């Protein structure tokens, strides 16, 4: 059974930074796509960043390009989302998820197999 556990929730002022972590446990393939999504109340989840675990290729939505960075520590099976220059519109529930690496750049939430529990980010 695959589990994703997120940490790093918090509240910051606009312009500040936060780092989210996503630790994966269980039996997974050697190459995956780890995606980061956020969900506003009443809206569908939208992808903001993703990383292919073999090779480290990253993808970003235009709304976060230049401000968010996703990275990984394969030894710890942990993926990070560093969020800088945060804006009030970044306030949302953030989720990490895992899927096969094909089409990692498309941020299609329906293709992800397992999800974290979500963590709240508040920017004021």
Give a description of the structure.
The chain is mostly beta strands. It has no helices and eleven strands. The chain is globular. The model has no long low-confidence stretch (mean pLDDT 95).
SSE blueprint and pairings:
Blueprint: E1 3-7, E2 10-12, E3 18-25, E4 33-39, E5 46-52, E6 58-60, E7 68-73, E8 78-83, E9 92-99, E10 114-115, E11 119-123
Parallel strand pairs: 2-11
Antiparallel strand pairs: 1-3, 3-8, 4-5, 4-9, 5-6, 7-8, 9-10, 9-11
- Rounded mean pLDDT is 95
**Are there runs of 5+ residues with pLDDT below 50, and where?**
none
Strand content: over 45%
Number of extended strands:
11
Structural class: mainly beta
Task: State the major sheet.
Answer: 7 strands, mixed
Q: What level of helicity do the residues show?
A: under 10%
Order of helices and strands: EEEEEEEEEEE
List keywords for this structure.
124 residues; mainly beta; seven-stranded mixed β-sheet; four-stranded antiparallel β-sheet; globular
